[in-house]
Amino acid sequence: MAIRSLLITISILAISACGFQLKGSYTLPEQYQQIQLQVSDPYSAITRDVTKRLKDGGVEIVSSQGESHPTLVLGKDTLERSNLSLYPDGQVAEYRLTYSLEASVLEANKPARQLSLQVQRDYLDDPRQALAKKREMEVLLSEMRQQISDQLMVQLASQ
């Protein structure tokens, strides 16, 4: 029993020593504990996802810009769709979806830090199942926005 407890303790120490963190748990640097969020559309889905990730990370979103508060500017988010394959009748069978977000971090007395984030997914399209594919596309876009939000948090944490 003592050996088992010792092995568990050593395993826990080894995992924590290597920097292991659960997915979605980001420790942001001290200067990002309060941040101003500047967006063109405060009600967009990407704004909601980024705001949720920031709050989950313990960040307080402030409304007025101050000397000590950095500003996260969310720029344009785009979804591009390119053809990967066709059915014999010429209809598109498979798409590659590319979701991208331009952002920047503004801090006092530092140059602006530009962030360009991108996620790609392949999507099979079957015109015979239009309703199911519409729902699948909505879920896929939601997952891609979450991945972009996670990438943004990783970029902020790596500062």
UniProtKB/TrEMBL annotation:
Keyword annotations from UniProtKB, A to Z: Cell outer membrane, Lipoprotein, Membrane, Palmitate, Signal
GO biological process: Gram-negative-bacterium-type cell outer membrane assembly; lipopolysaccharide transport
GO molecular function: lipopolysaccharide binding
Main location: membrane
InterPro entries: LPS_assembly_LptE (IPR007485)
Membrane topology listed for this record: Lipid-anchor
Gene Ontology CC annotation, any one: cell outer membrane
Subcellular compartments: Cell outer membrane
Positions in coiled-coil regions: none
Assigned protein family: Belongs to the LptE lipoprotein family.
HAMAP family documented for this protein: LPS_assembly_LptE (MF_01186)
PANTHER family: LPS-ASSEMBLY LIPOPROTEIN LPTE (PTHR38098)
Known function: Together with LptD, is involved in the assembly of lipopolysaccharide (LPS) at the surface of the outer membrane. Required for the proper assembly of LptD. Binds LPS and may serve as the LPS recognition site at the outer membrane.
UniProt subunit comment: Component of the lipopolysaccharide transport and assembly complex. Interacts with LptD.
Protein name: LPS-assembly lipoprotein LptE
